Amino acid sequence: MDQSRTPSAVHPLLACAATVTEAVTEARMRPVELAGTEVKARALVDLTTAIGQLEALRLEVIAASGDVAHDAGARSVASWLAPTTRMEHRAAHRLECLATAIAGTGATWPRVGAALAAGELTREQAETIVRTLDDLADAAYTEAGNDGVAVEAEVLARAEQHLVAEGAHFAPTALRRLGEHVLEVVCPETYDQTQRRLLEGAEARAAAATRLTLHRRGDGTADLRARIPEIYATRLETHLHAFTAPRTRPAEGGTVPRRRRGDKALGEAFCAFLERLDPTVLPDHGGSATRVTVTIGLDTLLSGIGHATLADGTPVSAGHARRLACTAGILPAVLGGDSQVLDLGRTRRLFSSAQHHALALAHPTCRTRGCTVPAAWCEAHHETPWARGGRTDLTDGRLLCFHHHQRAHDPAYRTTRHPDGSLRFHRRL
């Protein structure tokens, strides 16, 4: 008779879970804050190791629980586990995939599972190693006529052993980078050919997975979701970092400005990046250079009261439209009475590259007091608004960072001009 189904018998798996629960409850009865520094430091390390070992045990159970899913009529263990434990299905599926790879009698990478069970790896490290080894294993299958060299099982075993050993010294991100060159260590004679095939395969998968969706939320914002090849993500990140404005020095008055969240800073940088795109280098659209057109009435432009409209019908405030009029690539269509076009973007409204450089030489940072954003990241602003006859010359130009350029055209802020040409903004009460 199977003792695991006997009510009076307690299976070691259930006893383990009960013991862990009891131990955790007992440990929390005493406030953690009262523990000494040495105790907390050791506990952090020991608990991390213990969690890894518990993860290994759970993965072993998942790998052996096909009968649980079968009895419940579920498609997979993950399909049963997710609703039962209130886990996201994606997370449960990821656990089942990892369990299949490193746990049970049919494990593909048993050394990884053994290291996790011994507390030598964390689950994140194990997942990283498995992904790397799976990519290498994919290269072992060559099509007829392919001049690549298959990755032998012995080489894969050496790669697994090497990455498991490196797990004692490196975090998951560093392990991933090491994994990209593991063949150079364990099998240098075939590294070049195999690495080429791996890169070509990764590039092909990335190209096939490339997606971008744009959803307008109806509240003045839009959700942009994209999956692009990593090489382009790196280029975009580099461009956006050029538009972020780190403020490391205290502003005037000795106060340190509040730092923006990383995603907030990148979001603002992306907006600035789009505004600074040179329309002359973009493909023609409808027989002319690609531009964004802002339609606004003359009275609205002069008064700042009212709104303008983008080409697709999106409304924007008059202040925002006036700021856009300072930016290259934005074409303001100014309408008079009966919607007659009075002006369609005079080219002289835009400061030239030479003028921008001259302004930067005179003032190497944003002209707002206390702002240290470099001039190279700033936008040229008309001191006398272009809509009111401002001239595009050096005496009428000010370099402002993206943030303060928005404030200059925001009616909610008052601008104070100092004798030295610097500006300061105050929120209207």
UniProtKB/TrEMBL annotation:
Coiled-coil segments, which residues?
Answer: none
Q: Record's InterPro entries?
A: DUF222, HNH_nuc
Q: Which residue numbers delimit the DUF222 domain?
A: 46-359
The record's section on Pfam families has: DUF222 (PF02720)
In terms of superkingdom, the source organism counts as Bacteria
Question: What is the designated name of this protein?
Answer: DUF222 domain-containing protein
Q: Which organism is it from?
A: Nocardioides donggukensis
